[in-house]
Amino acid sequence: MTAPVLFLSTVFKPDIWLSSLKSLSPGLAIQVWPDADVTPEAVRYAVVWRPPHGVLRTFPNLACVFSLGAGVDAIVSDPDYPRHVPLSRMIDPTLTQAMTEYVVLHVLYNHRRQRDFEALQRLRKWRALNAPRAEQVRVGIMGLGVLGTDAAQKLVPLGYQLSGWSMTRKHVPGVRSFCGQPELPAFLAQTDILVCLLPLTPETQGILNRSVLSQLPKGASLINAARGAHMVPEDVLALLDEGLLSGATLDVFPEEPLPPESQFWTHPKVTLTPHAAAATDPRAISRHIVETIAAMERGGAPGNLVDLSKGY
Ligand code: NAP
Ligand code: GLV
Fold it and tell me: Based on the domain organization, do 127 and 75 belong to the same domain?
């Protein structure tokens, strides 16, 4: 296969992705942006992660753009994205499983007060803390898409009361469905552990703010594994200090890497990870890219498509 592919990322070094693509399709012709010898007219496929805005429009014969991640906010927010070009994103069981592990781990961590136990351990204090039974804990997942649905389905057998909030009504066994802005207050009022797995769009940017989070029951906890820009950092910090939130697990931040001076690093009620909840497996995404290119070269259509009108 000789289809000209361009690797374009401002964050990832190309080596691991290129060797993975080449191992599955040795004949694939891959170039790396911004190498000088890239001929814009020759590029048919772009494999991207956080591409600089304005660059994708410079390839007049693009047939498909592949996102190396599940979230496509950094691509669709490009005002110059060539909107006739399909955008295919990462949807794969390896990534879904990784996110579900993260969510289950941190739902249990917050529910079973592990952060408090670790603080007691540092003080060498032998003290049992009470936690409610799982059946008494209400977990609400914002974003009941590929990742939110799987996480919810894996939490149901643990006994938690599950609900999800999405744009449209969902029918997931054991998971109460709330949808749209009108049902957001009711969803929040019955959520003890809030998990954010929303895509970042103009509608969801800053949704984890004081006005929204104040509608949770006092002492609720927050898990954000979606995007840092969903959160208004000063609101989350203030709500933790005021006790309205009892704890937060945060994987993503408005500025990444998180600056050393950020209060999140040392806040006693915060557990953080460096955008590591669910990384894309290079082999899994390479398989998708190689198979899709082969299908498209035979006249087929790409899968895992983003709805550009919705932005996710
Ligand atoms: P998805 O399948 O597109 O699901 C998105 C869900 O959000 C859908 O249920 C959608 O509702 C809902 N939604 C979108 N806009 C909404 C709004 N304004 N109000 C209410 N609900 C809304 O996305 P996914 O694959 O599950 O991924 C979710 C996000 O996780 C990604 O966009 C990415 O940012 C993040 N992520 C993070 C990591 C990490 O390592 N931290 C890894 C992978 C992904 P409908 O179904 O009704 O349309
Ligand atoms: C990671 O953040 C992703 O969107 O896949």
Answer: no
